[in-house]
Amino acid sequence: MNVPFRPLGEVRDIVQATGLDISYAYEDLVFSDHSVFILRFADEAAKKLYLYFNSQCIEPEANALTQKLIATGKVMGFEIVQAGSFTLSEASEIEEIEIKFLN
Question: In angstroms, rounded to a whole number, what is the distance separating the alpha carbons of residues 69 and 51?
């Protein structure tokens, strides 16, 4: 199995520029603190990220974070693309979460 390179350290630096940190990373997904947003690594390019905001995030806050992420990412050679929103819910009877991407 071929595991693609994911520049997680650089992505952590981009996220930290917003005042948040990475709370969890799983395969191609990177979760910010409090699940405010998720960054998803693009399959087609190592330095391209798709940005999804929690549907409960307040729009002015999401807009400010988006601008900071895009600007910091650009300085570091990343393309960050707004891709939509998501919701989180607990799966019944098991200790798992369900992520539903919207848009």
Answer: 9
Domain spans of the chain? 8-102
**Predicted TM-score of the model (pTM):** 0.90
Which amino acid makes up residue 72?
T
Given a contact cutoff of 8 angstroms between Cβ atoms, the answer to whether 69 and 51 are in contact is: yes
Q: 17-64, pLDDT tens digit by residue?
A: 999 999 999 989 999 999 999 999 998 888 999 999 999 999 999 999
Structure tokens at 16: 């930290």
CA separation for the pair 3, 15 (Å, rounded): 23
* Residue 46: C-alpha distances to residues 6, 7, 31, 41, 62 (Å): 6, 7, 17, 7, 24
Closest CA to 73 of 39, 27, 31, 36: 39
Q: Where is 14: in which H helix or E strand? A: helix 8-16
